[in-house]
Amino acid sequence: MSMGGWPAVLAVGALVLSLLWYLSFSAARLDRLHARVEGARSALDAQLVRRASVSLQLATSGQLDPATALLLADAAHEARESVPADREMAESELTRALQAAFADPQVAADLASDPLGREQLHELTASCQRVQLARRFANDAVRGTRVVRRKWIVRSFRLAGHAEWPQTFEMDDTLPNTLVTSQARPGPSTDSVT
Fold first, then answer.
1. Among 31, 28, 36, 32, which Cα is nearest to 139's?
2. How does pLDDT run across 137-163, given as a tens digit for each residue?
3. Which helix (H) or strand (E) holds 70?
4. Which of 43, 27, 21, 37 is nearest to 146 (CA)?
5. What is the DSSP letter of 3?
6. Average pLDDT for residues 19-36, to the nearest whole number?
7. DSSP letters for 11-36
């Protein structure tokens, strides 16, 4: 090979090495994104289980009227026992049961007037808010992963391998208004005046 051909060979070699590095970098990034989706989904699952447990505890506490308690207990049980294919619907049903249970602001006010009820109300509100945050974080992770998987280089070189297309978790996670307002108002003071 003549001396004039070496620069072209070096340029092609550098280009191939750059492409290989970029493919390796992209595959590692995609792997991290998939791991992030799995971690976020696990965190969401834990928060959904916690919300169902807190709802079930409230339903069996004797602090709600029997019809509301039965409605809430049934929805919480269904959410905990649902199969993955039905999970979004079951969780939305639990949200609707919570909204029905707290449609009357007096229910939250009555719970807030009792120390045990106030604690349960606080736990329920906190668990509902954590579900909202965990779902938002999980869906953001899914969207970020989808953006990378749509890139032509990822599709062309099949960098995603056999990983499933990441799915968002779609459910109604609207917090009942009376839970939000009951947390904003302080409960009755337990300090004794002497």
1. 36
2. 999 999 999 999 999 999 999 999 999
3. helix 66-81
4. 37
5. T
6. 95
7. HHHHHHHHHHHHHHHHHHHHHHHHHH
Residue 84, domain member (yes or no): yes
d(CA 100, CA 96): 6
Asked if the structure places residue 4 within a domain, the reply is no
pLDDT, tens digit, for every residue of 178-188?
887 766 444 44
Answer yes or no: is 86 within a domain.
Answer: yes
Burial of 147 (0-12, 13-18, 19+ CB in 10 A): exposed
Within a domain: 5: no
Supply the pLDDT for residue 194.
36
Mean pLDDT of 109-127: 95
pLDDT at 78: 98
Distance, in Å, from the CA atom of 11 to the CA atom of 17, rounded to the nearest integer, reads 10
